[in-house]
Amino acid sequence: METQTILVVEDDQQIRDLLKVTLEGEGYQVVEAATAAQAAVEVRSCNPNLLILDLGLPDRNGINFIRDYRLWSLIPILILSARTQESSKVAALDSGADDYLTKPFGVSELVARVRALLRRMPAQPGQQASVIEFGDFRIDCIKRLVTRGGELLRLTDIQYRLLILLASNPGRVMTHKQLLLQIWGGKAVESHQYLRVYVGHLRQKIEANPAQPRHIITETGVGYRFQL
Amino acid sequence: MSLNKLFPACISSFCLTFILLPAQGQLNLSNMALLYVLLVVVIGSHYGRLAAVLNAILNAVLYAHVFVPPLFSLAITEVQHLLSALIMLVVAILVGHLTASLKVQAEQIQVREIQARTLYDLAKHLTGTKTPFEVEKVADQFLGLTLGILKIKIVSCHETKANFPVSLEALESIKKTQKPVIQIDKRIALLPLTSDYFLLCELSNNFDLHNSSPELLETVASVIRVALDRIYFAEIARETEIRRSAESLRNSILSALSHDLRTPLTVVLGLTESLALGKASPERQKAMLTSLHNQALSINRLVTNLLDMARLRSGQIELNEEWQPIDEVIGATLRQIRSQWRNSEITLDIPPDLPPLRFDAVLIERVLWNLLENAIKYSMCDLPIELIVRRTGDNLDVMICDSGPGLPAEGIEELFGVFQRGQTESNIPGVGLGLAIARTIAEAHGGQVTAENRTGGGACFRLRLPLGNPPMLSELEDDV
């Protein structure tokens, strides 16, 4: 298997060094960029498999960078944000970033996220698995059936759509807005309360302990993340 | 106008004479005279002094001419009759005059009463004003019609001089004497408020110098001046309070930094140097690295808390409130707590079917995190921490209870205020910071955080949030 390349866009030298040491230790090839302009050059020349992007770049708004980048590339983007950037974090995810880490972050967490993102390479149409399995659960996307330990689980239309959407993006943060858009369409984007009610119902059905969910994880203030 | 008043005076006199004509010679002369005087009183009270005097003279002449013998002649032969006619004239004029004065006085009193009530209303409504603009609006609204003032404006002498309605010399003299200037011909009045501000009144056509005297305008100006002064000093008091609390915040941050941050930093410095020497055994090195990691985490916690507090205190926090279930944010917090303290056990007691609450999830997560972190740090026992959710009246309580040594019986309240008071160094790192943040966030949500000791040992922290009225969700799918 060929070495995977990660482009690190971060203006702070020390954090760049930390990322480089850690990721190279994990066997990835790391290319560094300190500014958005430099990143734009490197993206074309090194053709990375993953982009790690700091939201606070000196020369360009990170969200605009992601928007432009998403126009032509589908490779995953992991953003690094400071605690004071709560809203820009959500905006970055809405613009197409795949996951986020808040500084200061643990190295083990970083490596876990990078692995999860690289495992889930840009999905080609038709390549999506038609069967998703997690825990005792098995979702047959073609027959629209969900079973738990072989037993049929009854879900409403919206619950089913919500489950498919979450489960087919394991490990990825889905913002409230993204979920609402994909399940209800454009008109429902503001009514987060509906989403919470349905997530609550779905948890009742698939979580052993809905108050402490194992599969549908709440990312407070951002959205939900599905864990297989 | 005066003709309108004089005409009834003449007519009524002739009418009365005409009515009394059949009684000529039968009715006593003195009664006749009294009836004429009565008419003067009526006329005086209705049409004023001039009409009363005219009526009195006319009455006297008609009385003398028609009723006093010799009849239909002014030539009075008897001295007695002449005397009674003259007395009637004098009495009538006197009574008419008095009646008319009384009428004028009554009218003036009525006007004054309206003015007084207007001033009272003005003063009452000015107490609620918060800006000079509001003062101007209220004054304009309340003074306008009653005092014959068309428009009231508060103007500064620094405003464009061209717009100023009086000459510069007049302005200087107002400034010097602090006396109002009323220019009836230009229909304006300018009253000094402060050294730089003036009350500019546009007077209406029926503004009457007699009724709305300069003193009245000065009273208006002084009522408005009091309101402006109050606003000014309230603003100063507010600014002082902000400065004072910013000052105390800065002191608190400094003291927190000096103690709470220096301790872990000292450990970090020492450990890294020891590690660099490379003399410790591999097991020892591993323990040192763990300790290093823990110290870094504690620095991170402190910095996070300081940043949170600074943001909360500076008033920059905007609540991103939404209706959501509390159990969701509890679950998310527990997940994070467990990733950092793997060994502490937390038991949950959350009733099903809780109504959604309106809150900012990120901030409430901070509250729960801080309370749980406190419980873990201070319980120091292997007994589990309990997280209990209860509905009490119009509130929802989240209680986090430990089985530790409990809180000092005195000064429970002070736990929350350590940060504000900028207490000098304490030997427990970061204490109060987390609780002060928790309380500030809860209060921003209209709730509160309180602490108490449990019966049977241990401390209990209670986050109380108001339930409110969640919006009904329509079009929910039927769950089968």
Written overview of the protein:
The complex is a heterodimer of chains A (228) and B (480). By secondary structure, chain A is an alpha/beta fold. Chain A folds into 2 domains: 5-119, Rossmann fold (3-Layer(aba) Sandwich); 131-226, Arc Repressor Mutant, subunit A (Orthogonal Bundle). Chain A has helices at residues 13-25, 36-46, 62-70, 86-94, 107-119, 157-167, 176-184, 192-206; strands at 5-9, 29-33, 50-54, 77-81, 99-102, 131-134, 137-140, 145-148, 151-152, 173-175, 216-219, 223-226. In chain B, α2 packs antiparallel against α3 (49-67), α7 (214-277) runs antiparallel to α8 (282-313) and α9 crosses α10. The chains are: A alpha/beta (228), B alpha+beta (480). At the A-B interface, α6, α8 and β11 of A face α8, β5, α9 and α10 of B. Chain B: Pfam families: DUF4118, HATPase_c, HisKA.
Explain the layout of strands and helices:
The complex is a heterodimer of chains A (228) and B (480).
Chain A: E1 5-9, H1 13-25, E2 29-33, H2 36-46, E3 50-54, H3 62-70, E4 77-81, H4 86-94, E5 99-102, H5 107-119, E6 131-134, E7 137-140, E8 145-148, E9 151-152, H6 157-167, E10 173-175, H7 176-184, H8 192-206, E11 216-219, E12 223-226
Parallel strand pairs in A: 1-2, 1-3, 3-4, 4-5
Antiparallel strand pairs in A: 6-7, 7-8, 8-9, 10-12, 11-12
Chain B: H1 2-20, H2 29-47, H3 49-67, H4 79-126, H5 132-143, E1 149-156, H6 168-177, E2 181-183, E3 188-192, E4 197-203, H7 214-277, H8 282-313, E5 322-324, H9 326-340, E6 346-349, E7 357-359, H10 361-379, E8 385-392, E9 395-401, H11 414-421, H12 433-444, E10 448-453, E11 459-466
Parallel strand pairs in B: 6-8
Antiparallel strand pairs in B: 1-4, 2-3, 3-4, 5-7, 8-9, 9-11, 10-11
Helix pairs in contact in B: 1-2, 1-3, 2-3, 2-4, 3-4, 4-5, 4-7, 5-7, 7-8, 8-12, 9-10, 10-12, 11-12
Multimer state: heterodimer
CATH superfamily of the largest domain in chain B: Histidine kinase-like ATPase, C-terminal domain
Mean of the pLDDT scores of chain B?
81
For the record, the CATH class of the largest domain in chain A is Alpha Beta
Q: Mind telling me the C-alpha Rg of chain B?
A: 44 Å
GO molecular function (chain A): phosphorelay response regulator activity; transcription cis-regulatory region binding
GO cellular component, one term (chain A): cytosol
GO biological process, one term (chain A): regulation of DNA-templated transcription
InterPro entries (chain A): CheY-like_superfamily (IPR011006), OmpR/PhoB-type_DNA-bd (IPR001867), Sig_transdc_resp-reg_receiver (IPR001789), WalR-like (IPR039420), WH-like_DNA-bd_sf (IPR036388)
